[in-house]
Amino acid sequence: MLEADADGEQVRLEPQSDSRAVVVLASGDLDYETASVLDAALARAAEVADAVVVDLSAVDFADSTILHILTRARTRAETGSRALFLAGPLNDTLERLFEVTGLGDAFRFSPDRESALAAVPRKWQ
């Protein structure tokens, strides 16, 4: 497990022993000041896994900076023929952020981490 901390905000990578997936667990506030930590974790996950699940269930706040980071992660995943899933449940702030920007359809969402891991295509397991 790789952990990174930025001013009390935590991003943790959790390799899954039963698949080629890595869970990136984000918590706290995700904004301009913590974006680099999440970006580095997502880049690392893409290097070591065929599927990346971003667990956003513990995120309290996020701004548009995070959408840029997630969009970059999606592009990395598509370029490398990898899967990227966003897992919830999402709080109202995150749901509204995806809704207002129209990016809700740009990502594969799962209601929780377990559902996202179950959705990892077999070719990646």
From TrEMBL:
Tree of life domain: Bacteria
Matches recorded under PROSITE patterns: STAS
Segments forming domain STAS: 11-120
Pfam families cross-referenced by the UniProt entry: STAS (PF01740)
One Gene Ontology molecular-function label: anti-sigma factor antagonist activity
PANTHER family from the UniProt entry: ANTI-SIGMA FACTOR ANTAGONIST TM_1081-RELATED, ANTI-SIGMA FACTOR ANTAGONIST TM_1081-RELATED-RELATED
Protein name according to UniProt: Anti-sigma B factor antagonist
Organism of origin: Actinacidiphila alni
